[in-house]
Amino acid sequence: MAQGRGSARSSLVVGVAILCLLAIIQPSLAAYYNVGNGGGWTFNVNNWPRGKSFRAGDILVFNYARNLHNVVPVNSRGFASCSAPRGVKPYQSGKDRIRLKKGVNYFICSFPGHCQGGAGGWTFNVNTWTNGKSFKAGDVLAFNYDKTTHNVVLVNKRGYDSCTSPKGAKAYQTGKDRIKLAKGQNYFICSLPGHCQGGVKIAISAA
Fold first, then answer.
1. In angstroms, rounded to a whole number, what is the distance separating the alpha carbons of residues 114 and 92?
2. Residue 147 and residue 68 share a domain
3. For this UniProt entry, which residues form the secretion signal (predicted)?
């Protein structure tokens, strides 16, 4: 599939804003773009349009796991606020094809927390936060987050690797959770769809 002609705009975590130039072209001449390239429509795809230019009539291909994401066309206000207008039907096939209109086209994922991302705290790509740190049993982790977009679940290594919660596992969801580390390996994930896969997970070894 064609991979680009050069210009775009930025966005948030699972969202893109694309500026289309020129007039609508014939379908036979439309370029196809795989959003996110090989990684597909997922977290941190916001920089994907850089270095590309698009024309009205070009087709965006959104590839993703349908149980983890969706695609919602929004306006500039919905893009900035990470909210979908009432009545807008999300694409959710996992292999969506959307033709670009002339002007700026905005797309977000409407799953809780996916568009917002967040700055700091228990959020996406926090899995590298433990690098260079040492911990002892009895140390207390403070999980600060928006309770409408995340939770915290204590899991075992299998649950951590597969991003699944054991049956009966307690989900912390106050937004200001305090959890004392046990000796040995401690594994934590967010169990909301797609969040663990997006790096909302940490593994800590406590001496």
1. 15
2. no
3. 1-30
Residues 38-64: b if buried by 16+ CB within 10 A, e if exposed: eebbbbbbbebbeebbbbbbbbbbbbb
Is residue 101 assigned to a domain? yes
Q: What is the span of the domain harbouring residue 177? A: 126-206
CA distance 61 to 105: 14
CATH of the domain at 99: 2.60.40.420
pTM listed for this prediction:
0.60
**Two tokens, residue 136:** 């002892």
Neighbour order of strands in the sheet with 54-55: 54-55, 15-21, 103-108, 72-74
Is 200 within the bounds of a domain? yes
pLDDT beneath 70, residues of the chain: 1-15, 19-28, 116-120
Q: How many domains does the chain have?
A: 2
Smallest CA-to-CA distance from 178 within 129, 112, 122 is with 122
Query: d(Cα 176, Cα 51) in Å, to the nearest integer?
Result: 40
162-183 confidence digits (pLDDT tens): 999 988 888 999 989 999 999 9
